[in-house]
Amino acid sequence: MSQITSITFFKFKGFTNKFWALSMMQLAHQHLLKVDGQPFYKLMGSGRGIGFNALPDLSTFVLLQVWEDETKADRYFHAADIHKNYKNRGTEVWTVYLRNISVQGQWDGANPFEKSIHPKASENMLVLTRATIKWNKLISFWRYVPKSHQPLLHNEGLIYTKGVGEIPLIQMATISIWKNAAALKRFAYESAEHKEAINKTRSLNWYKEELFARFEPYRSMGTWQGVNPLPTLN
């Protein structure tokens, strides 16, 4: 059976539910560590707006999970008590099933993603960028962040993006979903701000560890902002 990855977005409203979700950043691990068929996972908070943001968005939390196969993932989403608790507390839950296309770099010293052997069935593409920022580079990195986000604003090829992280300010990631590879390529190679960010990453040596991965979304369950953002993948 082929490895897959899932990313689940949770939306919470009200102080009590937001506080519960924040507390689960610590308490949920006792449950998630025991999930069958899940060799790797990351529970992450998010920043306000799009891309990296130092200000937290306490309404949105994200769970990335790597599965030995799709059957194990289905079993978790249909029966796991921890997932039911998140759904009961949340106002919206959106899960995307993914097959890995390519990956470069490491996460916690290893690469958790195996390249899929399945033929690509969707034009959509999800990109995950993740980095641990060096302590002595935090100021220069965060000074440039607002400028680097400009090409994402009103980008017609972008379906959704969110900045997430394990540790505020230091361990950051972005999740972006694109209509197709051509839209992603235009952003990567025609955006002056993005090209400058890549050059600064190399010249200023911002990161202690980094990872860049591309995935094919092939299944989308739930809603976000009232709709399924990938309705053709139901």
Count every beta strand, where a strand is a DSSP E run of 2 or more residues: 8
**Beta-strand percent range:** 25-35%
H/E series, N to C?
EHHEEHHEEHEEHHE
Radius of gyration: 17 Å
Biggest sheet character: 8 strands, antiparallel, barrel
The largest beta-sheet arranges its strands as 1-3-2-6-7-5-8-4
Query: Could you tell me the mean pLDDT?
Result: 90
The level of helicity is 25-40%
Low-confidence stretches: none
Number of helices: 7
Identify the overall geometry: globular
Q: Helix/strand/pairing class, anyone?
A: alpha+beta
Give the N-to-C terminal Cα separation.
Answer: 22 Å
Brief summary:
The chain is an alpha+beta fold.
Describe the structure.
This protein has 234 residues and is α+β, with helices and mostly antiparallel strands. The protein is 30% helix and 34% strand. The protein is built from seven helices and eight strands. It has helices at 15-27, 29-32, 70-79, 81-89, 138-148, 181-190, 192-204, and strands at residues 4-11, 40-46, 60-67, 92-105, 125-133, 158-167, 171-178, 207-222. Strands 1-3-2-6-7-5-8-4 form an eight-stranded antiparallel barrel. Strand 6 and strand 7 form a beta hairpin. The longest helix is centred in the N-terminal third of the chain and has 13 residues, at 15-27. The model has no long low-confidence stretch (mean pLDDT 90).
